[in-house]
Amino acid sequence: MILVGVGLEVLATVAGTIGKQLLRYSKLIESTDKAACSCAFLAIGLILNVLGGPVLEVAAYGQAPQTLLAPLSGLDVLWNILLVPHTLGERPSATQMNGCFMLVVGTALTVVGGPHTELQYTSAVVRDRLVTTSALIYIVVELFLIGLGAFYVRRRPAGDQRRGLVLGCVAGGIGGNLFCMKAAASLISAYWDKGLLGLLDVWTAGPMPIIVAFTAGLIGLSSACLLTMAMREFEATMMVATYEGAFVISGCASGVAVLGELDSLPPSRVLLYTIGVFVVIGGVLAAQQCETSRAPTSTSTTGATTTSLTSSPATTVAAAHPTASRKLNPPPPVASARGMGGRTSSPKQLSTPLLKTMATEP
User: Residue 319: is its pLDDT beyond 60?
Assistant: First the structure.
């Protein structure tokens, strides 16, 4: 069943990538002749991000541990880097391609080192996991960081790169808190065989399952709204990498601190899993980097002369009109040769061919 969960999570990343790119594309065509399609693409992108991907994730997290599935969210960056040249016209750099390779390697390490068995969740297990000291400390720290990030975003102008970085981190940090969704999905999966009556019994036995499910929906909706704002304001290449990096960190941290899914693993596998998580994060950060583009050049339509847009006006005019170059930069006057014999040499008496040419030019 764990393999089923992994497969569903991979499908969720594909759906999420398509949804994020549609959000970005809807903004790009908003002021063009395709503006009528902008709302349609925006609606489809929202559906994929709010319903399509999360529904697949709920099904996946009901079959496999959170710490195993959270690093797979980094595959969203891989799909985005591979598709964005063909969909949005953004060209990934060599550093971003290396980041994709790191994502694949890091994901493989987390799959090997992570937990391979799924804990049987009940209402009592969920209650015990959510009220531990480590879980409460994690929740308090997470709320403080999210509030600090939201305060910073409100103080920065729209389009500011630092605002985009913090906004993506806040959206991913909120979305990565999957422990509520994991608990709710596991409860549904555990009591699914008992039919509708069994599901009603577990969900009406106490307030904890309802609170968990409501919190999971609130987390998903908040993250989707912030991500929609970020994707319409910044480039997909940068924002997807930022969001997924924060998502992976938050997802792995909450799985360890709140659900304690690594408590039963030997130290060697915990170390391998930790290395894999850091490799995934490094790949996400590398996928965020863009190479500085060189100054564009323009080619003359009248000949084979190529001029740079950063050239000086005199150089540009000289390249296009050779006659004008002699007026802008006239040749130096012919120096007198009084140093030898006290006689002045006329242009006709000069023996140097270059000086003869300069003297005879109009």
Answer: no
